[in-house]
Every structure is written in structure tokens, then in C-alpha cells.
């Protein structure tokens, strides 16, 4: 049995789907009770529980855990190691943590939290049979899907990261397939693996791809995000877009290519599959 947390979100659901495509038995952990037709249709066992509570029922019989922590949640730094430790003590021997590309950017609160979780991994598994692996995705191409739909009507692509710096957008399906590899294949213990898309794209580059895809002119428009320091999530977003505007968010696709056994999907391929 492989346990996937935050399974009701886009990443968790995609990982469940990729694992089920491999024939793996999956327990999908969600935050709240209620019908989960997408997960149920995949054949996953669905368990509702708080990640900061008693996870014993969710971890019974688990041989592996894929830990996705909810986005922009201030409890990750302490909560994620606790979940990983509980899984190791329950007998899971393979722990895979969903981190982020360049977690060492500690000026970004959500990156800093993930960096500290990675730092704790050796202590988490100490005295158990568990081994750890880490996946570090770049920004998702899927994060732009709502803007793609709006651009079809408006002809505009607002860019909170400006018009000059690039990002290496990765398709969530490729992230999920890489996660499935880390959860099910041998020879990858104590490894940290980047999941990065194959192209470095500025907002005007994305707009040009949208123009070709939609058959209408789309123009990238600089749209700075309004600063929000009032909440943890607001601080995360404010610092994130400031970082992307100043430096972009790019990396190499070679590690993901090796994990997948093929090149990652391009942004144009992502658009065609929407």
C-alpha cells in the first residue's frame, strides 16, 4: 500500500492516478470527509484525516508514503517531519517528500520551510528501516490554465512575474509520473531529484504559444501582484513573485528526463492536452 497525502489537490490526485496506472494499491489521504468521486473512480482507498493529528489509521500497512503538504501552510516546517517520522515508525520503508525547486531560497517562506524539512530527513528515519527520497518541482504549467481560458476571451496574459524573466514550467502529469517512479522503483534512496520543464519561457513566450494554440493574438501584460504581508500565504506569494520578477525560476530538465525515460512535456503539449 502506498499512501499519498493532500490527495484531493491537483498534485495528490495526479500522483494517485500515476500510481494506479502502474497497478499500485493507493490510500488517498484527504483533509475533510465527503464524496471524492475522482479518487474513488481511480480505485483508491480514501481516508479523511488532519495531517497534524493521529495518522495511525492512514498508515496501517503502508510500505511507502508520498508526502504533499498543503500549499502555503505555515505548519509544514514542523508538521511534515512529524508525518514522515510517523510513517517510518509505522513500518513504511520508502518516504518521498514533495519539495520545491531551489528550496534554499530562504527569503521565500514556503521554500525555507521545505528546506528545513529536507534538512531533517536523516533524523526522521534514524533508528528505522525507512529511506528517503525528495522530488523538487518547478512551477506548474497547470498554474496558468485559468489565465489561458481568460486569454481566449481577452487576448491578454497578465504576468505577475513581469515580462523579462523566464520560468521552466513543468506539467503536473510529468511531476506525478516522476513521483510514481520514486515511490515504486529501486536504486533511488537518499536522492534529491529536480522536476523541471524543458523550456525557459518568459511571459511573452507563453503569450506567443497561446497565440498559436488559440488562433488569436495574445499579448503578455505586466501585472505586478499587490503586496500582501497580512497572512503567511500572502507573504509567500508576495516574496515568490518578487523573486520570479527579479530572477525568474528556471532549472535543467535533464533529471526529470532521466526519471521519465523521455523528455518532459513542452508547454505547447500541455496546452493541447487541456
Secondary-structure topology with pairs:
Layout: E1 2-4, H1 10-21, E2 26-30, H2 37-41, E3 45-48, H3 56-59, E4 64-67, H4 76-89, E5 94-98, H5 109-125, E6 131-137, H6 145-154, E7 156-159, H7 172-184, E8 192-195, H8 203-214, E9 219-222, H9 232-247, H10 254-260, H11 267-273
Parallel strand pairs: 1-2, 1-4, 2-3, 4-5, 5-6, 6-8, 7-9
Helix pairs in contact: 1-7, 4-5, 8-11
Briefly characterize the structure.
This is NAD(P)H-binding protein. By secondary structure, the protein is α/β, with parallel strands linked by helices. Helices cover 43% and strands 15% of the residues.
Structure description:
InterPro entries: Ergot_Alk_Oxidoreductase, NAD(P)-bd_dom_sf, NmrA-like. This is NAD(P)H-binding protein. This protein is α/β, with parallel strands linked by helices and about 270 residues long. The chain has one domain (about 1-274): 3-Layer(aba) Sandwich (Rossmann fold). About 45% of the residues lie in helices and about 15% in strands. The chain is built from eleven helices and nine strands. It has helices at about 10-20, 35-40, 55-60, 75-90, 110-125, 145-155, 170-185, 205-215, 230-245, 255-260, 265-274, and strands spanning about 1-5, 25-30, 45-50, 65, 95-100, 130-135, 155-160, 190-195, 220. The protein has a seven-stranded parallel β-sheet with strand order 3-2-1-4-5-6-8, with helices on both faces. Strands 7-9 form a two-stranded parallel ribbon. Helix 4 (about 75-90) packs parallel to helix 5 (about 110-125). The longest helix is centred in the middle third of the chain and has 17 residues, at about 110-125. The protein starts with a strand and ends with a helix. About 45% of the residues are buried. The model has no long low-confidence stretch (mean pLDDT about 95).
Amino acid at each position: 500500500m502506498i499512501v499519498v497525502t493532500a490527495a484531493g489537490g491537483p498534485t495528490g490526485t495526479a500522483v494517485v492516478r500515476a500510481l494506479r496506472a502502474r497497478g499500485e494499491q493507493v490510500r488517498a489521504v484527504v483533509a475533510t470527509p465527503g464524496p471524492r468521486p475522482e479518487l474513488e473512480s481511480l480505485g483508491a482507498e480514501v481516508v479523511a484525516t488532519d495531517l497534524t493529528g493521529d495518522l495511525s489509521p492512514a498508515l496501517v500497512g503502508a510500505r511507502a508514503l508520498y508526502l504533499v503538504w498543503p500549499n502555503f501552510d505555515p505548519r509544514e516546517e514542523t508538521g511534515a517531519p512529524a508525518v514522515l517520522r510517523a510513517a517510518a515508525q509505522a513500518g513504511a520503508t520508502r518516504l518521498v517528500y514533495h519539495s520545491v525547486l531551489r528550496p534554499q531560497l530562504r527569503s521565500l517562506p514556503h521554500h525555507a520551510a521545505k528546506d528545513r524539512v529536507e534538512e531533517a530527513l536523516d533524523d526522521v528515519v534514524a533508528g528505522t528501516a525507512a529511506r528517503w527520497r525528495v522530488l523538487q518541482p518547478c512551477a506548474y504549467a497547470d498554474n496558468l490554465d485559468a489565465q489561458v481560458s481568460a486569454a481566449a476571451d481577452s487576448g491578454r496574459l497578465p504576468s505577475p512575474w513581469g515580462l523579462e524573466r523566464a520560468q521552466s514550467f513543468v506539467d503536473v502529469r510529468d511531476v506525478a509520473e516522476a513521483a510514481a517512479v520514486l515511490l515504486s522503483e529501486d536504486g533511488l534512496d537518499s536522492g534529491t531529484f529536480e522536476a523541471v520543464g524543458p523550456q525557459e519561457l518568459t511571459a511573452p513566450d507563453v503569450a506567443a504559444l497561446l497565440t498559436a494554440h488559440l488562433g488569436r493574438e495574445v499579448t503578455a501584460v505586466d501585472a505586478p501582484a499587490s503586496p500582501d504581508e497580512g497572512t503567511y500565504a500572502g507573504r509567500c506569494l508576495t516574496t515568490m513573485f518578487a523573486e520570479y520578477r527579479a530572477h525568474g525560476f528556471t532549472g535543467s530538465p535533464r533529471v526529470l528526463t532521466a526519471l521519465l525515460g523521455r523528455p518532459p512535456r513542452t508547454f505547447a503539449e500541455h496546452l493541447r492536452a487541456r
